[in-house]
# Entry
Amino acid sequence: MIYHLFQLLKEYDIPGQGLMNYLSFRAFLASATAMLFSLLVGKKIISLLQRKQIGETVRDLGLQGQIEKKGTPTMGGVIIILSILTAVLLFCDLTNVYVLLLLLSTLWCGALGFTDDYIKVFKHNKEGMSEHGKLLAQILLGLVIGLTVWTSDDIVVREKVAIPEEEQEEIVETGRYRNEDVVKSTKTTIPFVKDHEFDYKWLSPLKGKWNWYTKWMIYVLMIVFVITACSNGTNLTDGLDGLAAGTSAIVGVVIGVLAWLGGNLIDSDYLNIMYIPGSGEIAIFMSAFVGALIGFLWYNSYPAQVFMGDTGSLTIGGIIGVSAVLIRKELLLPLLCGIFLMESLSVLMQRTYFRWTKRKTGEGARIWSMTPLHHHYQDKKQVPGKVLIPKPVPPHHEAKIVARFWIVGILLAVASLALLKVR
# Structure
């Protein structure tokens, strides 16, 4: 709103007005606003949750410090959502299609997570929403995003064409681009190849006019898969104080940087990455995202005063998935979101291996003592049956596990950025 207000008043030559035209300045304001809002309003929301007795229900699984968490306020993801929305509404261009899609995703996943938490807390159903119900809602969001990417004339990429030097400065300053240079495309970014590009039409089994339809259907299905996987992966990672929030903040920084570079004509040309007109606004959104998470960490770090619940975890996962798709970096997510990937794979592998060994021998065996993976490193009672990878002795403290996961997340983030120059 502040951004649009300054745009309306630009003819009056107000001192400092031009700063609002700089993505860097608005990104800084968005991040600072979201962080301060999260810090200041978060305390009041936590007090409200305590008064309403909206506390976490904990099952005794033998994990260190687990019983002490009982009654800690949950549904704290509301703090993250409100902080992001406040900063974005103030400093983003609300006519930008990428911002609108990210706002839709935030509200959609927030409502889904809130419903799940509401059922757990107020309906006293520990299972919350059914897995099929949550999956259906995530798939629907993916379809909305995918079909919009397919049909919207505002979502385009620029072909790699030579632009005269005298035109480059004007394009960078005004943000305008030549219509003949931009196309609807199913191309995305992939490392280790010459031009950093992969086109989903290469997966299409059909040729001719049908190829156009099949390539877009393949791309839409990929978008649905990425958004669903990210949302669920973050949800599984949310099991230790500060783990999901800290790891997501690291991922958010990288996506913000990539959005910044991909939305800048000169930088994208220098790095030989895809130029996506208008995607620079995603950098402002992700700045608000990171600011909100850092502010939330003030209360969520060990020992946590509040948990984000599914309200927060499903939302931040959805934002990461949607933003990665919009800047055409979804194929980098297995590396960038390696923590989320391993958490998800640990659960999938554990279930599959247990069922297979039980069917084969009559007694189920496990790969890890407990999943998701972060729980394997905590103190735990001896589990029945065989465990391929024994738990560490002595067990690690929760705070140490979180810190080490953050370190791994930072290394993965650096590696993801380094791939920009690897061909």
User: Anything to note?
Assistant: Residues 25-348+399-421 form one domain. The radius of gyration is 23 Å.
